[in-house]
Amino acid sequence: MTVRRVPPSSVAAPADVITGSAWVTSLAEPDGPSRTCVQRVLFAPGARTRWHRHPLGQVLVVTEGTGYLQLRGGPATLIRPGDTVRVAAGEWHWHGATDTTAMTHLAIEELSEDGARTEIGEPVAGSGPGPAPAEPVTRTLVLDQRLPAPRPVDRVEVRRITIAPGHRTGLHVHNGPVFGSIESGSAVYRIEGGPESVLTPGDVFYEPESTRIARFDAQDEGVTFLAHFPAGPGETPTLTPLDR
Fold it and tell me: For the stretch 104-120, what's the b/e string if a residue is b when 16 or more beta carbons lie within 10 angstroms of its beta carbon?
C-alpha cells in the first residue's frame, strides 16, 4: 500500500490535446499487473479537449466547477460536481469547462495491454455550447482540514497577496495556521521535508502553525491568492523568515 500525503506536481496539458489552458496532476500510474491510470485535470474557463477516443473507454468524476461533455452525434451535456461519466471504448467525445467557469475532474482509464493509445482528432468546432445555465446557489467543499490541537480564535484576517513573477519567499514559518486559495497565476509549494506541488487557480493549501515552509515561489506569471489567518485574543498573524 502507498499513501501520498501531499498532492504531486501538476503540469500544463499538451497543446495538441487541449484547446485553452489546463493542468494535469498524475495521481496513479500503472504498477505491476495493474494498468489503471488516474489523473486530476483542471480546465480553465473555455478550455476543452479535442475530439478523442480511448481504446478501453474512460471514467470521469467531476470534483469542482461546471463543464460539458459531448459524444459525437449527440448534444453537449452539462456536468457538475459529483457527476460520474462512463465513456465507452472507441467512443468519440470531448469534455472541458464552460466559457465562464473552471472545471476539475478525475480521469480514470485502463491502458490497453497491447499499447494502443488514445486517438486524438480535430478541435471542437466553433466556440462550443457556451456558458453554463445560471444556478441560484452552488456550494463546493474545497478543504476540510483538522487542526492538530484546539486553539482559541476570536478573529480571522483575510488578505489578498500578490507575489511578483519569479519571486521566492524563502524558508519561513507562521505563528498560526494559514488557509489559502489561488486566484490567478501559479506557485511552487513545499513543506520542508515533503514533495513539491504546483498550485494553480482553484487550488487550496494549508500551512500548519509553526511548520517550516520551504517554498512558496511564484512562477513566471506571478501568483495572487487569498490567505485566511485565524488569530487568538491579542495575537497578530506574522511570517518569520528563517536561516537554513
Answer: bbbbbbbbeeeeeeeee
Is the whole-model pTM more than 0.70? Answer: no
Q: Indicate whether 6 pLDDT > 60.
A: no
Any idea which of 47-51, 119-123, 124-128, 164-168 has the lowest mean pLDDT?
124-128
Give CA–CA dist 75/28, Å, rounded. 32
Q: Are 148 and 177 in contact (CB under 8 A)?
A: no
Range 29-36, long-range pairs (CB < 8 A, 24+ positions): 30/111, 35/110, 35/111, 35/112, 35/113, 36/108, 36/109, 36/110, 36/111
106 phi, psi to nearest 5 deg: -90, 135
The amino acid present at 177, given as its one-letter code, is P
Q: How far apart are CA 37 and CA 48, in angstroms?
A: 20
Instruction: Count other C-beta atoms under 10 Å from residue 82's C-beta.
Output: 9
Across 131-137, average pLDDT: 72
From 120, 87, 128, select the one nearest 18 (Cα to Cα): 120
Measured CA to CA in angstroms, residue 214 lies from 94, 190, 196, 205 at distances of 39, 6, 9, 14
Beta-carbon-side half-sphere exposure of residue 3 (alpha carbons within 13 Å):
1
- The span from the CA of 42 to the CA of 180, in Å, is 18
Strand stretches in 57-202, DSSP E: 58-65, 67-71, 76-79, 84-87, 93-97, 103-110, 119-120, 155-163, 172-174, 178-191, 197-199
Residue 117 has pLDDT above 60, yes or no: yes
3-state helix, strand, coil in the chain (%, to 5): 0, 50, 50
